[in-house]
Amino acid sequence: MAERVRVRVRKKKKSKRRKILKRIVLLFALALLVVVGLGGYKLYKTISAADDSYDALSRGNKSNLRSEVVDMKKKPFSILFMGIEDYATKGQKGRSDSLIVVTLDPKNKTMKMLSIPRDTRVQLASDTTGSKTKINAAYSKGGKDETVETVENFLQIPIDKYVTVDFDGFKDVINEVGGIDVDVPFDFDEKSDVDESKRIYFKKGEMHLNGEEALAYARMRKQDKRGDFGRNDRQKQILNALIDRMSSASNIAKIDKIAEKASENVETNIRITEGLALQQIYSGFTSKKIDTLSITGSDLYLGPNNTYYFEPDATNLEKVRQTLQEHLDYTPDTSSTDTSGTGSSTYGTGTEESTTDGTTSGSSYSNDSSTSSNSTTNSTTDSSY
After folding, report:
1. Is Zinc-finger found in the keyword set (predicted)?
2. Cβ neighbours of residue 26 closer than 8 Å, sequence gap 6 or more
């Protein structure tokens, strides 16, 4: 832990210019743009200054669950996307408002996508007490390192790469590509992050959204009967729409401008050479080829504050784990102890949680009373589970 603190201190001392340069290996230039046809020269021009200044994890390049560093050009690998919400804390101690795991197989050119509900009840990687809290508490506690390791424990797969993006970068990129088209599932409204007195209204059916509208569309969950699951599906809808939008000729031509817009708001540990290689492998890939998975489970209210948690279904979670493991061609070490806090032997008891609210997640993670209270909540995605 001390080593991690030293790394952060060194990063704070870097100049603003160096921060910008090291963040140019972007979420959209690597996870999204690897799946569309980009000219190699244009991509190189966009990220050429970032190769020696990307944001490494404290663990180094290799996941602790792997025996060696994965070759992204030849073998399946995973990326964890973290959407960081810090507008509620004015830029301090942000939370991972959205967590999306993507696995890619360069040989077969396949991709799987999984959203993890932010209220999912897990044991954090650094916790030694056995208590559980919401998975989005990991980022506020230990940043990207804690989040990556917690997700590894939860899904029992190695997380090879990560990308963090805050919502300013999200809006800038949406605007730069000319907005996105979505299919709104029902009428609702949401306040703007720019002006709290302003409401943004969405009507059922096809709509074209700018950055401000897209963020409101992605954030809303109080009016969604499916709660966090409905919001997760809308976030994936935006990601898919952005992938398709980025593949247009006009946006390919200005990828350097798009990168500039997002550069101050994205961090990743993907190198230039890796991004260029993936661009060639996934050229022509579209969102229609993405296999979307989902986690099902039940609502759970615990502790003196009646705090809401999402409790994953053990059978479904195991199926999701196996699907991702197979796609990664990864076999977990069964001799190791399950530290995810979601093993079948401890599932659904709800008895060890009563003191977790104040010690791990705190009031920042208190119950949203408008979240769906169905005993079983299913996410309707492309996958059968």
Report:
1. no
2. 33, 47, 163, 259, 262, 263, 266, 268
Whose structure tokens read 């050429």? 48
pLDDT digits (tens, 9 = 90+) for 21-69: 343 344 444 444 433 333 444 444 455 434 433 678 999 989 999 999 9
Structure-block tokens of residue 28: 């959209």
- Given a contact cutoff of 8 angstroms between Cβ atoms, the answer to whether 36 and 62 are in contact is no
Tell me the two tokens of residue 359. 């010690």
d(CA 217, CA 213): 6
CB burial class (10 A; 0-12, 13-18, 19+) of residue 250? exposed
Question: Which is it for strands 297-302 and 290-293: parallel, antiparallel or unpaired?
Answer: unpaired
Of 257, 82, 106, the closest CA to residue 166 belongs to: 82
**By the 8 A CB rule, do 155 and 321 touch?**
yes
372 in Cβ contact with 227 (< 8 Å): yes
The sign one gets for the Cα dihedral 331, 332, 333, 334 is: negative
> Do 37 and 247 form a contact (C-beta atoms < 8 A)?
yes
The more confident residue out of 288 and 353 is: 288
Number of helices (H) and strands (E), helices first, in the chain? 13, 14
Residue with tokens 């030849």: 74
- This model's pTM is above 0.90: no
